[in-house]
């Protein structure tokens, strides 16, 4: 029942990499423009904006903009899923396949087109059938979408998936005007957006975008006069612009030294520091077809030898969180299964797992680690990992580092070219399944041959486990949250036992805001709404 081909997963890995890379990469995106003399909220970033077409947008900045330009069927209030364009949570059929969703009336698109079930069906079908970067989120799951009344939508799935309403809150699954997008046919519209959200797109350029409040918005109106997204050519320029008050909010792309400096000055400058547990994770994918990693004992020694605290401090100066499960800590079901089983680079644990092997100075463990040369954090992490392993294992290990650019590595993963490789993953929607199924599932394979087609093959791991496949199916059918939590925890334990993927760290989301800004808060997906933002008078 697995829902997407390996090539689709590999493509998602690439975009996940590009999103995480924003934390350190200096992106050239046109010149830096001075702040305009108006009451708009200015948000600074170095992230490049490739497209605003929700059927093709898969980067973090685009997701943030779509969250505020558009509306989805559902959104979040705290950690609770609540209706947005829907008026209630779905009515689900007994077999878990059919979702009926009642919709709001009196909603209009930015071009004046009325919103209804047919418009929502058009938007979801366009997303699903366009072949854009995120299309597989729906294409692998949805059988049919129908407008069965003016204000009633029906979606039929191919297989049960209890987290489907959470998927419908994905920023790209917003309603778009059939008038504007229908006229475009099969073409993407990267520089425009016509939705139903609290803002309309007023200007789009390589230097940034400008959003204006939508006068006919059905919901709560923005508390500000508009939003300017200003794209800077380097993290140094963004850092200086925030320090001098040229931007109200700085998001992403600051390096660890800059983040640490701004945090240190926050007490005296009264800057606001908003942090959240990131939803981007970095893992070590282990090729179970290549020696010595075809031997469980060798993988267990490696698992015991990883010192995540050392990685987090030396690579990110403490601005990343050690990760002990495939599921990041922002999910309540996350369990530190690798720390519990293997410790965190503890010498006693290393010695314990070495007892089951022939690893010695005469027969050292050969570690050939690949990383992406164009991702600065990976370059430093590979060096730190090498030094850490050599420090803790001594002459019982030989570490060789090799690198290639991201495109080359992702292109060659399924060929089994890499024994060990550092990779990133960025979750699409708020559910732990999004961090387990994409790693551990397999469409076709056997215990003897490993995974021949499916998610784990796309990662270059080739992990195959009938138990994992069964647990994934069961967790997707289980509507009771407590029983489902048990199944998701069993999947985490299963990966720790098999050591198919080694979780290393998860990014932290850090925003900086000027003292007078009010209303800035991260949501469960580590994004934030623009509408509540406003500036208090300077004497407050």
Features:
four-stranded antiparallel β-sheet, Dipeptide-binding Protein, domain 3, D-Maltodextrin-Binding Protein, domain 2, globular, 18 helices, disordered N terminus, alpha+beta, 540 residues
Description:
With 540 residues, this protein is an alpha+beta fold. It folds into 2 domains: 41-271 and 514-535, D-Maltodextrin-Binding Protein, domain 2, CATH 3.40.190.10; 277-508, Dipeptide-binding Protein, Domain 3 (Dipeptide-binding Protein, domain 3, Roll), CATH 3.10.105. Helix content is 32%, strand content 22%. The strands form 5 sheets. Strands 1, 8, 9, 10, 11, 12, 13, 14, 15, 16 and 19 form an 11-stranded mixed beta sheet that branches. A 4-stranded antiparallel beta sheet has the order 4-5-7-6, covered by helices on one side. Helix 13 links the parallel strand 14 and strand 15. The termini are far apart.
What proportion of the residues form beta strands (DSSP E)? 15-25%
CATH-defined fold name of the largest domain: D-Maltodextrin-Binding Protein, domain 2
- The CATH H-level superfamily of the largest domain is Periplasmic binding protein-like II
When the domains are counted, the total is 2
State the helix count.
18
């Amino acid at each position: 029942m697995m829902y997407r081909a390996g090539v689709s997963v590999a493509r998602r890995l690439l975009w996940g990499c590009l999103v995480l890379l924003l934390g350190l990469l200096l992106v050239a995106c046109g010149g830096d423009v001075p702040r305009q003399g108006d009451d708009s909220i200015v948000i600074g970033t170095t992230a490049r904006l490739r497209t605003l077409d929700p059927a093709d947008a898969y980067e973090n900045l685009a997701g943030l903009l779509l969250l505020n330009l558009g509306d989805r069927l559902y959104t979040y209030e705290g950690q609770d899923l609540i209706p947005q364009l829907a008026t209630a949570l779905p009515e689900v059929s007994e077999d878990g396949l059919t979702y009926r969703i009642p919709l709001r009336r009196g909603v209009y698109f930015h071009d004046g087109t009325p919103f209804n079930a047919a418009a929502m069906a058009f938007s979801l079908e366009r997303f699903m059938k366009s072949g854009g970067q995120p299309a597989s989120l729906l294409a692998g799951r949805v059988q049919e979408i129908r407008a069965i009344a003016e204000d009633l939508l029906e979606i039929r799935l191919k297989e049960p998936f209890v987290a489907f309403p959470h998927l419908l809150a994905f920023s790209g699954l917003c309603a778009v005007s059939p008038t504007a997008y229908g006229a475009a046919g099969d073409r993407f519209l990267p520089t425009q957006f016509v939705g139903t959200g609290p803002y309309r797109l007023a200007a789009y350029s390589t230097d940034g975008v400008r959003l204006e409040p939508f006068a006919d918005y059905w919901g709560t109106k923005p508390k500000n006069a508009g939003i300017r997204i200003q794209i800077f050519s380097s993290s140094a320029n963004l850092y200086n612009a925030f320090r001098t008050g040229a931007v109200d909010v700085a998001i992403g792309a600051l390096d660890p030294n800059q983040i640490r400096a701004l945090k240190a000055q926050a007490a005296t400058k009264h800057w606001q520091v908003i942090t959240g547990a990131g939803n981007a994770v970095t893992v070590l994918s282990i090729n179970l077809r290549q020696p010595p990693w075809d031997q469980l004992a060798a993988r267990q020694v490696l698992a015991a030898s990883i010192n995540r605290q050392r990685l987090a401090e030396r690579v990110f100066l403490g601005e990343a969180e050690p990760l002990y499960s495939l599921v990041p800590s922002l999910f309540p079901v996350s369990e530190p299964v690798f720390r519990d089983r293997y410790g965190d680079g503890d010498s006693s644990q290393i010695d314990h797992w070495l007892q089951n092997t022939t690893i010695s100075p005469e027969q050292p463990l050969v570690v050939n680690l690949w990383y992406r040369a164009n991702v600065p954090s990976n370059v430093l992490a590979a060096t730190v990992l090498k030094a850490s392993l050599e420090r803790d294992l001594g002459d019982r290990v030989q570490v060789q580092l090799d690198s290639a650019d991201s495109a080359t590595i992702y292109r060659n993963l399924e060929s089994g070219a890499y024994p060990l490789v550092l990779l990133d993953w960025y979750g699409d929607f708020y559910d732990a399944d999004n961090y387990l199924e994409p790693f551990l599932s397999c469409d076709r394979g056997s215990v003897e041959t490993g995974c021949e087609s499916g998610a784990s093959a796309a990662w270059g791991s080739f992990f195959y486990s009938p138990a994992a496949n069964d647990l994934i199916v069961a967790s997707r059918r289980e509507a009771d949250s407590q029983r489902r939590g048990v199944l998701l925890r069993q999947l985490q334990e299963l990966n720790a036992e098999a050591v198919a993927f080694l979780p290393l760290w998860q990014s932290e989301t850090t925003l900086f805001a000027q003292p007078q800004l009010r209303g800035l808060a991260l949501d469960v997906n580590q994004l934030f709404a623009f509408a509540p933002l406003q500036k208090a008078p300077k004497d407050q």
